[in-house]
UniProtKB/TrEMBL annotation:
Lineage: superkingdom: Bacteria
Gene behind this protein: moaC
Protein name, per record: Cyclic pyranopterin monophosphate synthase
Binding site for substrate: 95-97, 131-132
Parts forming coiled coils: none
Organism: Sulfurifustis variabilis
Amino acid sequence: MPPRTARPRRRATRDRTRGRAAGLTHFNAAGEAHMVDVGGKHVTTREAVAEGVIRMRPETLERILAGGHKKGDVLGVARLAGIMAAKRTAELVPLCHPIPLSAVEIELAPEKAAVRCRATVRTSGQTGVEMEALTAVEIALLTIYDMCKAVDRGMVLTDIRLLAKSGGRSGTWVREE
């Protein structure tokens, strides 16, 4: 076996200036992107709630609610797309951990010329589910856009944000409006 060569040591102060000092956990001491090691974290029940809105012309919403869309039940398909997206977040966001989800709930609420999507995602694990909740919202809204773009290309996805998260060492966080 060849002898091990010693790696040059870096000064800790220099290492901390490349991302870690700024609280960016997805970078190592050398400033390289890496997946955070969650092996030492405790398994806890974790939940995240995210929300977003797709704004559209009133007649587009009327068509969605009438159910006579040629592609079928728009909100039902969007709900399924959001659930599927939450389950596949680790395939879409490069440094996310693949985690088993215990629940994904997608609520789609029609409003005046808009549909509001709220996703609630739960797991028992070593890392949170914020990214899964945000991904579920985004993909559910994109599905509505895809299914309705033939009649309204001017739709706008907006206000996609995390509303709350709980579990883990950092505990509970709730967005203050």
